[in-house]
Amino acid sequence: MAGGGTGGHVIPALAVARELRARGHSVRFIGTQRGMEAKLVPAENFPIEWIEIGGLKRVGLRRTLATLAELPLSIWQAARMLDLPRPAAVFSTGGYVAGPVLLAALWKRLPVVVMEPNAVPGFTHRHLARFVSRALVSFPETAKWFPEGRTEVTGMPVREEFFAIPARTPGPVLTVLITGGSQGSRTLNRAVEQSWPLWKQGTIRLIHQTGAGAFEEIGPRFRASGVQGEITAFLNDMPVAFAQADLVVSRAGMGAVSELAAAGKPSILVPLPTASDQHQLRNAETFEKAGAARLVLDAELTGERLVSEVVRLASEPGMLERMGEAARAFARPGAAGRAADILESFIR
Fold it and tell me: Is the full-model pTM beyond 0.85?
């Protein structure tokens, strides 16, 4: 298993790894000690081996040169790891650790299966696309990046609790969930705080995940604002929060849009402008084109804009319900199981 750096890369790989382990297979990870895999993989009791590699996108000249210098050694390290013992296949969810591992796998003539949930593949998957044995994607249009006949729309592994969330009909008080991910988002936090005095009293309830860094500052001010709702540094049970929400305001990373699809939730998506290859923007554009979301650029989000977007969507009869149905059309349950099926097909 190769994929790391962020939770968005590691968590899907872990879902597939758990499925394989449940079927009696041995699973190993290759990662870096500074990525999220260093925390998440050992916690799941999977073995992991380390290589040293950094990113190449949006990292500055010094980091780019350092990564290029590390690349030959990291490929050699990964190649040795793939010999002891030799795996049936290599599975990648992307991230900077995937590059050396996939290059080593191709050098060793091992089958490579990639899971690419973004509308536009990331740097590694895009540049090695023609060499992969299978590509598992979330959007049909992503297939054009890979050789014909080697793609399958499986979606991304998402917790079953999201698929079980029932459709919701908005009432007189609209519940809006705002989340910038586990670390929070300064843009979303600022816009939400600006919006507090602009809501019509008795019409809105906010559930706001700020991230740990901003909570101590924003929390007391929210409680003093008189706005109905709750504010928290981190939501331990995101499916429960989704179930309460009529509308979600979120970034547009692969984890976020997959959960929105599974839950069938309408959304306002604010893509992270620094995301590599603008993949969050492409994800949001795909959702907006399908009628599942409203796209607002990071630089354009203010408290006033947030309120106007929410009010406009809520005031049109049936709009939120139609958006939720459009989002659910992207949902693909059983993604981890299907990935495991495909990986099993390479066992000789």
Answer: no
